[in-house]
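Anyone up for a design puzzle?
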């Protein structure tokens, strides 16, 4: 009997955090209320595996308590009235409704639900058509873009160069101080940081994002937000994560040129022929590849395993989500740099360098996640040592 491989499944490796959790993560610190429209499973998964701030920082993250009967008969009044009643008591700055697989299947119009909630309580409300089937990048990028579109309304022109660092969530950068290190790296090079969207700052900073001269997109989560700010205020943006010294210098040079010439640096590339492969999110992985190249002479190519902006997909940044797509690409790799949960599919002859990713393995390897903004030597040493043997 002919056996066909099952597509879009994972037999061995894990899956990335879903888009519903991405919405919650992006908006966690912004003094709003996020409601996941789901029976209960999304909230327990989010708080247990996807959100390291859960036990140290309060945020209004709720579940709608969707029942089978309400889902079948389309009782949207329940989530609308429950959300309005909670908002009147808690007085959040905004309300976000994020979908999950069940309302997606039943065709619930969450944008319309959000409009009705806003009409009843007068609080800015957003509906996100997330379904739990796409990665966190999809949900988080939609959330930051919509928040910026609605809540950032003014711009004060200034001759001083300042930057919004956009796309910072624990799903890509964990809680190991990387957000602070990126801010410090720019400030040490005389570039003032206006806001870090959206981690380690409050809603006032982000609602004043229009006052910055340039936006720095440090993960693909932030690209759509940067495009909104470009459209609304004409603010140019650069793509790149400030990893290590030399690559950070290059990024800062791009920021200054973008500010002076009002141009965007919206591309990142690596070496598509390299036998060193980095698996992860596109912007951070391409930035690591560039930092390894300029600092240590180590070339690398990237497999982006999550939602990837079209402008970043190339021969050196391949979009491959499922293990049956990834395995052939890494079959002749010399080294694979990836979350430890990828190790079972790495070929025997390849060296494996663990780079835990909060959005992939959750809290399992959190204590081992390096702060690459402080240096990438922990990764470079493994490759250089192996090549000398």
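Challenge accepted. My sequence:
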């Amino acid at each position: 009997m002919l056996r066909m491989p099952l597509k879009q499944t994972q037999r061995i490796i894990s899956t990335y955090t879903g888009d519903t959790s991405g919405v919650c993560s992006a908006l966690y610190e912004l003094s709003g209320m996020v409601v996941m429209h789901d029976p209960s499973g999304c909230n327990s998964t989010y708080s247990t595996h996807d959100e390291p701030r859960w036990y140290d920082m309060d945020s209004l993250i709720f579940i709608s308590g969707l029942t089978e009967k309400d889902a079948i008969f389309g009782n949207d009044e329940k989530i609308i009235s429950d959300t309005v009643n909670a908002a009147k008591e808690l007085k959040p700055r905004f309300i976000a409704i994020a979908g999950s697989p069940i309302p997606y299947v039943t065709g619930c119009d969450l944008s319309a639900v959000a409009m009705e909630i806003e009409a009843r309580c007068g609080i800015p409300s957003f509906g996100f058509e997330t379904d739990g089937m796409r990665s966190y990048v999809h949900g988080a990028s939609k959330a930051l873009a919509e928040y910026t579109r609605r809540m950032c309304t003014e711009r004060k022109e200034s001759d001083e160069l300042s930057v919004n660092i956009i796309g910072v969530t624990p799903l890509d950068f964990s809680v190991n101080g990387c957000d602070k290190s990126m801010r410090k790296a720019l400030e040490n090079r005389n570039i003032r940081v206006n806001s870090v969207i959206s981690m380690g700052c409050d809603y006032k900073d982000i609602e004043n994002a229009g006052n910055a001269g340039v936006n720095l997109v440090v993960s693909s989560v932030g690209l759509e937000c940067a495009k909104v700010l470009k459209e609304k205020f004409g603010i140019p943006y650069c793509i790149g994560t400030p990893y290590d010294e030399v690559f950070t210098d290059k990024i800062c040079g791009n920021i200054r040129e973008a500010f002076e010439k009002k141009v965007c640096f919206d591309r990142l590339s690596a070496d598509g022929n390299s036998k060193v492969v980095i698996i992860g999110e596109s912007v951070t992985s391409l930035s690591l590849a560039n930092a390894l190249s300029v600092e240590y002479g180590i070339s690398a190519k990237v497999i982006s395993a999550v939602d990837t902006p079209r402008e970043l997909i190339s021969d050196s940044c391949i979009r491959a989500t499922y293990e049956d797509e990834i395995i052939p690409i890494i079959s002749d790799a010399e080294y694979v740099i990836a979350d430890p949960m990828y190790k079972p599919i790495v070929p025997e002859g390849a060296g494996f360098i663990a780079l835990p990713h909060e959005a992939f393995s959750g809290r399992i390897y959190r204590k081992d996640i390096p702060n690459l903004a402080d240096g990438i030597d922990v990764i470079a040493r493994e490759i250089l040592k192996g090549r000398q043997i």
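A detail worth pointing out: The chain is about 40% helix and 15% strand.
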